[in-house]
Amino acid sequence: MRVGVVDCGTNSLRLLVADVEGARLREVTRLNEIVRLGEGVDAAGRLAPAAMDRAFAVLRRYAAICREAGVERTRFAATSASRDAANADEFVAGVTAAFPGLDPEVVTGEEEADLSFVGATSALREHGEDLGRTLVVDLGGGSTEFILGRATAQAAEAEASVSVKLGSVRLTERLLHPGGGFASLGAADDNGAAGRDDAPRVHDDGVPTAHAVGAATREITARLQEVEAVVPFADVDTVVGVAGTVTTLTAHALHLESYDRSRIHGAHVDPASMLEACDDMLASSRERRAAMPFLHPGRVDVIAAGALIWAEILRRVQARSPGLSLRTSESDILDGMALRLR
């Protein structure tokens, strides 16, 4: 059966057209457009009209691609930004108009995590790999999903999962964006003093200040404490990272001269090398980030926050599971959606 599935995240709008036969998936087309649907939603609580218009324009193009490909069944899943928005109904109506026949749904965090686990491990397991006790981390723009389970060549079964409001776009807008202060967030500076309203978040070159990084790190730590109350980080054999932030940082860790999906997908990356790549990205100026050949222009302003989140996750998991194997997967929630579509 040929299927077309769309994942609408906070930062990206992605399409997968694939032929599905049983537990096997053959990719026909995979597209990714940065639309920044969640721009401003954390502060306003609503999806901005301009952001929705960007998404609708891309969806009209995706609809044409699906028609030309002879897609038999479709599914649209909207995640973090749409769950949080007060005008989600308006967005859903616009999706239906832009992509006739599509039945948009706003998936729960739990379902999003389940689909991500199945999708992230699918291609690795297809090659006969036994990943053992596996932690899949789907680091998005508005939320991050943590799914723990067992993944063998025969099956993938999640045991525990949690979705937290922690993502590259959300953290950038709250703590790492130029302007504003931290007092409203109750943040403290590195000496424990309350954040000042005029405290700078980034330097003139776009590098986050130490004050901002400290506040952001405390925010990440608080969210990870919530995660560990549900998903333990101990005795993990394999960490599988998915989504654009992780794949971009993998390209940086591998010193790629361009974004090469074939080298990124399934990559084994030494955790120390990944942490070095994250720290380097965080310390890079906006000009340097924009010149990186593997970095999508739509991620230039949010990748520093993503790098900080990914680094803090890895440090915390590695402290509990020192011998872990770190993998990157280009298969993710899209693949899970396609495999589950019957």
Count, helices: 13
How far from one another are the termini? Answer: 9 Å
Secondary-structure-derived class: alpha/beta
The overall pLDDT, averaged over residues, is 86
The 3D shape can be described as: globular
Low-confidence stretches: 180-197
- β-strand number: 10
Spatial strand sequence of the major β-sheet: 3-2-1-4-5
Instruction: Characterize the main sheet.
Output: 5 strands, mixed
* N-to-C order of helices and strands: EEEHHEHHEHEEEHHEHHHHHEH
- How much helix, percentage-wise, in residues? 40-55%
Structural features, described:
A 5-stranded mixed sheet has the order 3-2-1-4-5, sandwiched between helices. The protein is globular. Helix content is 43%, strand content 21%. The chain has helices spanning 41-44, 49-69, 80-84, 88-98, 109-126, 168-176, 210-228, 244-253, 261-264, 271-283, 286-291, 303-320, 333-340; strands at 2-8, 12-21, 24-34, 73-78, 104-106, 132-139, 144-151, 156-164, 238-242, 325-328. The longest helix has 21 residues, at 49-69. A hairpin with a 4-residue loop joins strand 6 and strand 7 (144-151). The chain contains 13 helices and 10 strands. It is of the alpha/beta class.
